[in-house]
Task: structure prediction
Amino acid sequence: MNKQVKIISKEEVDIQHEYMSRVRVLNNQADRSWRAVVRTFGCQQNEADSEKIAGMAESMGYEIVDDEADADLIVVNTCAIREHAELKALSITGQFKHLKAANPELIIAICGCMVSQEHRLDDIKNRYPYVNFLFGTGELYRFPELLYKARVGNERFFVVEDTEGTLAEGLPIKRVSGFKAWLSIMYGCNNYCTYCVVPYVRGRERSRMREDVLAEAKQLIESGYKEITLLGQNVNSYGKDLGYDYDFADLLNDICAIDGDFIIRFMTSHPKDASHKLIDTMAANPKIARQFHLPLQSGSNGILKAMNRKYAREAYLELIDYMRKMIPDISITTDIIVGFPGETEADFSDTLDILSKVRYDNIYSFIYSPRRGTPAASMNTQIPKEIQSERFARLLELQHKISNEENQKLVSTTQRVLVEGISKNDPGMYTGRCESGRLVHFASDTDLTGKIVNIYIERAETFNVFGKVVERK
Ligand code: SAH
Ligand code: SF4
Ligand code: F3S
Result:
């Protein structure tokens, strides 16, 4: 049990930069372009990791493209949160077999949370012989070295070190958007909710130094980013491991003090650590979006205990009351797991009851998926699929009704909206997101993509609202 978090030194990162140059040299030797595809299957942290992989690949002379058909390098960044996520990544990887057959030079690498589990590593080793190499979440920073090794040698290799996670600074990032950015402030999780695989595959909580986070935020804002989402599995414990007195609320204050017109978001907050200080900080800082994602998981105290969530429904509701008191227009969203082992009809009613009490604007709900090695997976009170599905449908039905009613309340209000681009459903319209995260659609003669505008809401549906641009004050 000597596993530890490994802080990657500047010298070790420099070595990776050296490998980036070596691969670049290899690429420059051939008189053609090199293309890489990075596929992402997980959460925002996983997307942020993919942006690092893409950044490193670009530094090595690869053009980042979307179509695997003409790629020289494919990286599959996997997720392990539910079985469905794993199966999706495996199935896509299966489809790459014919690409490799057509182009033996193609390099296929698999990384992310799924491969940090031994049984999945073995699966890929044995069942996907055309995968060149594999690396765990803690080895992400070594991608240049591993790719170089794959380029010059013929061996397959599988690198998942026995650490509690790593922390590396100074790797290039190629962000997907030019106006919305993910900014990881910490990695890992110490909470061990009994259903969850994250603490096993992402290691222990570790915070980036405040100087590094602030420098990155400043650089993003200076280069025109309009929205920054601070990422961590439990952002409320940011700073606890840093050895100086500085917490998440302090970090938010310091970021808001940076000059510029921008919106700050963050996720995810664990209710057991969401403090009044954090809520007061939000209330005092208009740059922080009026939105709070506070995962409930279950409304039943018995189930919360079995989940090891370390709060009771009463404390959760108290926190919601405080938020609404301090920030009356706050939009609250949550995550719910349906059909956790032992969940009775009464437990499930407690969850529905909280939905009716809190009236979330939106919920992200999941049917419980047993994860190998977690305590909940070996509980002998697993709920049959039919019951899970039936409860899931009832949960959604109630929430859709609430979402619709809450959306109607927005009609005749003016919302601050970051414009994301042309609407996917109607090329004549633009789409953006309110501070609450709701999708807003409106018409415009000029391209407002990447701008923050005011929209007067005229009409609302369950998942969308519609309006028109009005002058910003
Ligand atoms: N750190 C975040 C959650 C990250 S995982 C937090 O604690 O809020 C995102 C969501 O996936 C969780 O909130 C939970 O609702 C869901 N989830 C996690 N493990 C799951 C499992 N085994 N089955 C179904 N849903 C799960
Ligand atoms: Fe998983 Fe719980 Fe950690 Fe969230 S807080 S990542 S649900 S163990
Ligand atoms: Fe995220 Fe999935 Fe890993 S949700 S932390 S990519 S297991």
